[in-house]
Design brief:
The chain is globular and about 45 Å long. By secondary structure, the protein is of the alpha+beta class. The protein has one domain. Strands 3-1-2-4-5 form a 5-stranded antiparallel β-sheet, sandwiched between helices.
Length: 164
């Protein structure tokens, strides 16, 4: 859950209410946790000094980087798919859904889990960490479960957040 530190820094840096909802200027991609890659749209309302602090904090994060929104939105699959080790949800367009979430909820961190799910809550991140640990020890030990029993099933987050 180290990648949440960057998101926490960004959220703390937001100084103007109502910053959410505008197309972000950049996207933070932080794959420093093995079980999730954190994606975060950087709001236009983020002051320049806070943006500089964010960029400096990424240097300390293993593999974390920043893309312009234009570069990210031009080809979201290129920047999202490499972080899915095993896609347990082929029936869900997690790539398109995550890109829409980043645009709609700039300043909000979203975790793409190792198996193509989405982590939004602490429970989701803990679940992803537990299942990844089991998967790393024995890939066959983590069976796909019913949507209702799976806290990171992407449709459980995409449907309500994108008003489906």
């Amino acid at each position: 859950m180290k990648s949440l530190a960057v998101a926490t820094l960004l959220l703390a840096a937001l100084s103007s209410p109502g910053a959410l909802g505008a197309e972000p200027t950049h996207v933070v991609i932080d794959p420093s946790d093995q079980y999730t890659t954190t994606f975060l749209g950087v709001p236009k309302a983020l002051p320049a000094d806070k943006f500089q602090k964010l960029k400096e904090s990424l240097v300390q994060r293993k593999g974390a980087y920043l893309l312009s929104w234009q570069e990210f939105s031009g080809d979201p699959p290129r920047h999202i798919r490499p972080y899915i080790r095993r896609n347990d949800y082929p029936e869900v367009d997690v790539v398109g859904g995550l890109a829409r979430l980043l645009e709609r909820y700039d300043g909000t961190p979203f975790g793409l889990t190792w198996n193509g799910g989405l982590a939004v809550t602490q429970n989701d991140y803990r679940h992803a960490a537990r299942t990844y640990t089991a998967y790393a020890q024995d890939a066959a030990s983590v069976p796909r479960v019913d949507r209702k029993a799976d806290p990171v099933h992407p449709a459980n987050h995409l449907d309500p957040l994108l008003a489906k």
